[in-house]
Request: fold
Amino acid sequence: METGCNPMELSSMSGFEEDAELNGFEEADMKDMKLEAEAVVNDVLFAVNNMFVSKTLRCADDVAYINVETRERNRYCLELTEAGLRVVGYAFDQVDDHLHTPYHETVYSLLDTLSPAYWEAFGNALLQRLEALKRDG
Reply:
């Protein structure tokens, strides 16, 4: 991840300034996790009924929550961390601490396990893009 900080600037700071700057990076990481969640949503929104970053569950510096309704009308609350994505609840904005589901590296892998209609929609979109390229190219 690019932070936009010059390493030479950090080496010239006093300890107090360095701590303040590093705390700023932690806040940027939190915003970046939410941005990452928004990117995940935008990437696959076409293949699900509904998907959005939770406004109820708070993002932390290392986690964001995404609500998704599959084309089969099943609702899930997903947790996004550096480890990947996993189901943490079976309703929007619900986190069940007793639920231990596996992490998936990608949203595609997760949706593949949750929604057979997802891959159908994904395949159809891919075919449409290929046909458009064939027409235009």
User: Anything to note?
Assistant: The chain has four helices and four strands.
